[in-house]
Write a structure and sequence with these properties.
The chain is built from 20 helices and 13 strands. It is of the alpha/beta class and about 600 residues long. The chain starts with a helix and ends in a 9-residue tail after the last helix.
């Protein structure tokens, strides 16, 4: 189904050509003066120089070609050469009814489904999720859902950090605390226990202690580095402990991600890339890409057009140890082999942009990835407190994500204390609203920008907030319940009639932007565009709801049209919030 802007542009293209001008100037945009018109074309201004004519003269000639069109209620040329357009009520109603009849509301799915891998978790094992993990998870989840909606085969990978010094630190501290554990007996050849000798709570205490202690005691740090090396060389007892750490950590991580309404298709780890490293390094050497510099193996990635210094990409340290660069490059090799993706999208803190620039360039230069595969870095900004600094607890510590979710849900539940509902229902409802407050508050900002986490504003039931969007959906659900309770039957095939009020027209115009919004959100990896859409649609619908009788309308034909329109708005809003990873309750 053609987007509404495409239909308008087709008419303008034809009119420009009939008037003797190149159709490339017939670009239609949403009006920046909605008080004057709905759409506009500024092509005559751009074309004036080529055709040596006054823009207003050209605009008038184009408008003359459209005088008999049924598409427009009004189309005029305005000084100095704008073409202002307002579509006819019949044209708009026809578009909305075709939207309603489409499973995707007219959004065209891709003709050829290609595979996209999205790397958007990045949590480390043995550590709890904290607020710093929020953005990657929820931005990546929305990008994944939007890509799937567009018809792509999408693989979401959590890509856990599990192979670095943090594991060596935990093993070392465990050996100090429980030296008699069978895992530390190098001569042991039997089966290791199935149950881990620690809990997630233990790990949360052990790792910070070991990390802090290693910074003050060099011999302890060296011991942990040795343990890390022995793990990576395959020491049985250490591998068994490592597997326990993963099992305990993943169980905890999955529970928190589930609360966030975030899921992954793959729970891959850094260690999964290890088998690909030896051959990758050999290929880099054989291809003449990698060389020794001060004992380290590196690949030059700078280019002549660079305006800033881009350091070489280090593949191996001087002691032969691998780095994050190594495992990230080997992960690209693994993804290419297993999935043959056309895009790999990394949702990561924007402060890592230089690092990923090095990795991407290295992957291309060494031919680890095909030329037609896009490597995309989606860098996000910082979630800050009201003081403008990275969000912390009151005592300056890092806030656990689980605690944030619980605290916000409790605040919402307190606001709902006077609502007439059972306590259990209120609790579940508050959790959904609290999650929407957090996620919408984040996603409504452009990903690359820092933002202030303001829990009071985010949990408000008014304004551009998650709770306001959910409230609108719940209002429509309540409206549909009233329709059913009054025995009113309005079939799915019931048409929306041409508009008779400004508020109805505004709802229909907001609806009509669905396809272009979703396409732009996908192409630009921009969930905030979906947020803006659902807010504008919610706002338009609430004005329409207040200004018109719907269930009680005396005219049955108009009533059926209004109900059909309201139902469509509800369907679109629920689809929109699903793409954001939100869920509406039944009541609020």
């Amino acid at each position: 189904m053609q987007k509404i802007m495409e239909q308008l542009q087709e008419e303008l293209c034809s009119a420009f050509e009939k008037a003797g001008y190149d159709k490339k100037y017939a670009k239609v945009t949403v009006s920046n003066r909605p008080d004057l018109c709905q759409y506009q074309c500024n092509g005559a201004l751009a074309a004036a120089k080529e055709y040596h004519k006054a823009p207003i003269q050209m605009a008038n000639e184009v408008v003359e070609q459209l005088a008999g069109s049924n598409t427009f209620l009004e189309i005029t040329a305005q000084q100095p050469g704008f073409i202002n357009m307002t579509v006819s009520h019949v044209f708009l109603a026809d578009y909305i009814n075709r939207m309603a009849a489409s499973d995707t509301f007219g959004c065209e799915k891709v003709e050829k489904s290609e595979t996209i891998v999205i790397d958007y978790g990045g949590a480390n094992v043995a550590k709890p999720l904290h607020v710093g993990h929020l953005r990657s998870a929820i931005i990546g989840e929305s990008i994944k859902r939007t890509a799937r909606y567009m018809g792509y085969e999408v693989i979401g990978d959590v890509h856990l950090g599990d192979w670095g010094l943090q594991i060596g630190l935990i093993i070392t501290e465990l050996r100090h605390r429980q030296p008699d554990l069978v895992y530390f007996d190098a001569g042991y050849e039997g089966e290791y226990p199935e149950e881990a000798p620690f809990t997630m709570a233990d790990l949360e205490e052990i790792y910070p202690y070991a990390s802090g202690y290693s910074k003050e005691h060099e011999e302890y740090k060296e011991e942990a580095q040795t343990a890390t090396a022995e793990l990576q060389m395959g020491r049985r007892g250490y591998l068994a402990l490592w597997q326990h750490i993963i099992n305990v950590s993943v169980a905890d991580l999955k529970a928190i991600y589930e609360q966030l309404n975030v899921s992954f298709d793959l729970w891959k780890k850094e260690s999964d890339a290890q088998p690909y490293i030896p051959q990758m390094i050999q290929d880099m050497k054989d291809g003449g890409y990698a060389y020794i510099d001060e004992g380290a193996l590196v690949v030059d990635v700078k280019e002549e057009t660079d305006t800033k210094e881009i350091p070489p990409c280090m593949i191996l340290k001087s002691n032969g140890a691998t780095l994050y660069n190594t495992t990230d490059l080997a992960t690209i090799v693994e993804r290419r082999k297993l999935f043959h993706p056309k895009k790999i999208i990394y949702v990561v803190d924007k402060r890592q942009s230089l690092y990923f620039e090095q990795v991407f360039r290295c992957a291309r230069k060494t031919k680890l990835i095909d030329e037609d595969v896009d490597l995309i870095f989606v860098g996000f900004g910082t979630m800050n407190g009201k003081d403008g600094k990275p969000f912390k607890t009151r005592d300056g510590g890092v806030l656990r994500l689980e605690t944030l979710l619980s605290d916000v849900a409790a605040q919402v539940e307190k606001k709902m204390a006077e609502r007439d509902m059972e306590d259990s229902v209120r609790k579940v409802t508050a959790q959904k609203i609290g999650l929407a407050a957090i996620k919408y508050g984040d996603l409504s900002n452009q990903a690359s920008k820092d933002y202030i986490f303001d829990v009071d504003r985010f949990t408000s039931f008014e304004g551009n907030t998650g709770p306001y969007i959910l409230y609108t959906i719940v209002r429509i659900k309540s409206l549909m319940n009233k329709v059913a309770a009054n025995g009113i039957s309005v079939g799915e095939e019931t048409k929306v009639l041409p508009s008779k009020s400004k508020s109805q027209t505004e709802v229909m115009l907001a609806l009509s932007k669905w396809s272009e919004t979703i396409e732009a959100a996908f192409e630009e990896q921009a969930p905030h565009k979906i947020c803006q859409y659902v807010y504008e649609l919610s706002d338009a619908f609430n004005k329409f709801y207040h200004e018109n009788k719907i269930v009680t309308n005396e005219d049955e034909t108009v009533r059926a049209s209004y109900i059909s329109l309201s139902r469509l708005v509800g369907r679109v809003l629920e689809t929109g919030i699903d793409l954001l990873g939100l869920e509406a309750p039944e009541q609020m």
